[in-house]
Amino acid sequence: MNHSRHRLIRHFLANLQVNVTAMSYNQVWSDWRELDYTPDYNKFYLICEGEGWLKIDGSEYYPIPGQWFLMPQGVKQSYSVTDGPRYTKYWCHFTAKIGENNLFDLLKTPYFIDTCNDREPERLFRDLLSNWTSDFATSPLLLKASLYNLIAYYLEHAYGSEDGIRLDAAFEPLQSVIAYIHSHYRDNLTVRNLADRVHLHPNYFIRVFKRHFGTSPIQFVNNKRIEEAKWLLTTTNLTLAEIGRSVGIPDVSYLSKLFKTMTGFSPSAYRQSNHLLQVNKLQE
């Protein structure tokens, strides 16, 4: 996977918002069957035992134990029991949004992975189920954390599958903008010159960019600049003025204000805290 595509996927995942709408572990009913419907939520099925049939976007599957299926939101699908023993499975209905978009509209992933007798997926689903049924005040946070872990496992293993992970073709123009930002963040970038690269009116470009990334183009540029400033603060002895010129924010006062707004630290405090961390690691 090329660097610009990899960076774009990382940005998507950094802005991912998730929510569990239903889940359980059970054997399906004898009348478990629905044909050609389009859900407004994503589904995970981890098959533990039994037999059955799925149809996702026109392709038919007969999942076997150990296979983990993703059935994305907005995709026509079907399911049914067969003549054999009914499925016992972990299942989860969930949303996964980046801005206004479903994650799996942006990232085209395989519809299933083989867990290869790995016990980790079952453990992850058990954690999710435990948090789903918990009455603790913190359980909504833990539930989201469990779902993030499930999605991360699925995506990591989808990377290594035959089909891998692809970006939706509609994002090729925006991918070029992201690559340009990463190469030219030191320059005086404006919305107009970014919009010109994809031949869009600046106002429309801002709306498209924010709808897909959950942030404005200039906020995205500043995020990149601050990430580079953090790296330079912790790996060099450059002054703040030198760092500002290096990352495209030569106004030291503005750089300090923006840095604190985005990190909660002044640049000097950030440098000092990370210096102390490195000293402590050396002493361990």
UniProtKB/TrEMBL annotation:
SMART domains: HTH_ARAC. Pfam families: AraC_binding, HTH_18. Residues 175-273 form the HTH araC/xylS-type domain. Keywords: DNA-binding, Transcription, Transcription regulation. SUPFAM superfamilies: Homeodomain-like (SSF46689), Regulatory protein AraC (SSF51215). This is AraC family transcriptional regulator. The lineage of its organism: Bacteria, Bacillati, Bacillota, Bacilli, Bacillales.
